[in-house]
Amino acid sequence: MSLGSLPGRVTVVEVGPRDGLQNEAAPVTVDERVAFCERLLDAGLAVVEVGAFVSPRWVPQMAGSDEVARRVGRRPGVKTPVLVPNRQGFEQAREAGVREIAVFTAASETFNRKNINATIDESFARFAEFVPQAVAEGFWVRGYVSTCFGCPYEGKVDPARVVEVAERLREVGCHEISIGDTIGVAVPSQVAEVMGRLQRTAPASALAVHLHDTRGTALANVLAALETGIAIVDSSAGGLGGCPYAPGASGNLATEDLLYMLHGMGIETGVDLSRVAAASRAIAPRLGHPLPSRYLQAGR
Ligand code: HMG
Ligand code: MG
Questions:
Q1: Ligand 1 pocket mutation pick from 13, 47, 50, 55 by most atoms within 8 angstroms of CB
Q2: What pLDDT digit, counting tens, does each position of 99-115 carry?
Q3: Does residue 174 have an active-site annotation?
C-alpha cells in the first residue's frame, strides 16, 4: 500500500531555542543559547526561532533574547525569527537587528488570557499596532494560532474558530500561519480536517503545523498534514518544549525524529540530522534531564 501524495521537500522550522528553552527549569546562559542556535544553523536549518521578546516576569527563561538575537546575527537566506506579543516587543526586536518576527494568539479565549493576558480580540488590537508597520518595513511575519485541536482550560475547539483566527492573522499581514497543537491532543483525522479546511482560503505555502508530542501522536499528525499538501513543519531539537501557560503540555515534536521520518521517506529538508543531534547532545547536560527525542534515545 502506498501513501497519498507527499511533498518532495519540507521546510523544518526549528523552535528549540524558544519553545524548547522557555520551558526549562535550569538556567541556560546567553552564551549557551547562542551556541545552541549556531549549531542548529550550521546543521542547515533555514528557519531557527532564536528567542522571545516577551515579559521577563512572565517567561524569565527568555530574558536576554536581545543579546541572543544580536549575537546570532543574520545569515543569507536564513530566517531567525523571535516571538513578539506587542509593540514594545517589536520595537525591542527591531533595535536588536531582528528582521523576522512571530506573533501569537489562540483559538480559545481562556488559554489566550492565561498566556498573554488578553482576549483574542485584544491580541488583534495589539497586532494592529505594529504588524502592518512591520510588513511595510520589510519584516517577515509569522502568526501562531495556539490550541487549535484542544484547550487545556476549555477542552474541544471548533475548527471553524481556527480558520477564523488564521484568516484574521493573514488579514493583519502575516506571511505564514503556524497551526498549533499546544497540548499535544490532536489525532491525524483532526489534523487532516483542520489543515484541509484552512486550504480553502489560504495556500499551503502559507501554512505550517506546530505539534507537541504529549500523547505520542505528533509524527502521525505530521504525515496527515503532509497528505493535505502542507510542507512546513515546526519542531524542536531534542524534543524540548512546552508552554508555561499550558498545563500538561510536554515536549514539541523532536527535530531529530521528524528528520528521521522525512529522510527515510525520501523527503528532502536540507538539514543534517547528525548535526542537529550533536546540537541537542551539547545542550543536554545543562538541562538536568534526558531529552525526549526517540531518535536520540535510540543511540548512535
Ligand atoms: P501584561 O502584564 O498584561 O503587560 O503582560 P502590560 O502591557 O500590562 O505590561 C506590564 C509590564 O510588562 C510592564 O512593565 C511592561 O513594560 C512589561 P512594568 O512597567 O510593570 O515594569 N512588558 C514587556 N516587557 C518585555 N517585553 C515585552 C513587554 N510587554 C510588556 N514585550 C504580555 C502582557 C504579553 C507582555 C505578557 O503576558 C507576556 O509576556 N506573555 C508571554 C507569554 C509567553 O511567552 N508564552 C509562551 C510563548 S507562546 C507558546 O509557547 C505557544 C506557541 O509555541 C504555539 C503553540 O504551541 O501553540 C507559540
Ligand atoms: Mg509551542
A1: 55
A2: 999 999 999 999 999 99
A3: no
Q: Give the torsion through C-alpha atoms of 10, 218, 165, 198, to 10 deg.
A: 50
What mean pLDDT comes out for the span 3-26?
94
For residues 167 and 172, what is the distance between their CA atoms, to the nearest angstrom? 9
Query: CB-based burial of residue 299 (10 Å sphere; 0-12 exposed, 13-18 middle, 19+ buried)?
Result: exposed
Ligand 1 pocket check for 90: Cβ under 6 Å: no
CATH of 3-295, one of 3.10.50.40, 3.40.640.10, 3.10.450.350, 3.20.20.70: 3.20.20.70
Instruction: Please provide residue 144's backbone torsions phi and psi, each rounded to the nearest 5 degrees.
Output: -100, 140
Count of C-beta atoms within a 10 Å radius of residue 64: 16
Closest atom of ligand 1 to CA, residue 116:
37
Which residue's C-alpha comes closest to atom 25 of ligand 1?
A: 55
Which ligand places an atom closest to the C-alpha of 245? 1
Sheet hosting strand 176-181, strand order edge to edge: 47-48, 11-14, 232-235, 207-211, 176-181, 140-146, 100-106, 82-83, 51-52
Does the CB atom of residue 85 touch ligand 1 within 6 A? Answer: yes
Give 1's pLDDT tier (boundaries 50, 70, 90): low
Helix (H, G, I), strand (E, B) or coil at 204: helix
243 lines ligand 1 (CB under 6 A): yes
Alpha carbon separation from 177 to 1, 79, 265 (Å, rounded): 32, 15, 25
Q: Quick count: other Cβ atoms within 10 Å of Cβ 128?
A: 14
Q: What is the pLDDT of residues 141-161, one digit of tens each?
A: 999 999 999 999 999 999 999
Measured over the CA atoms of residue 218, residue 124, residue 243 and residue 206, the dihedral's sign is positive
Q: Is 299 helix (H, G, I), strand (E, B) or coil?
A: coil
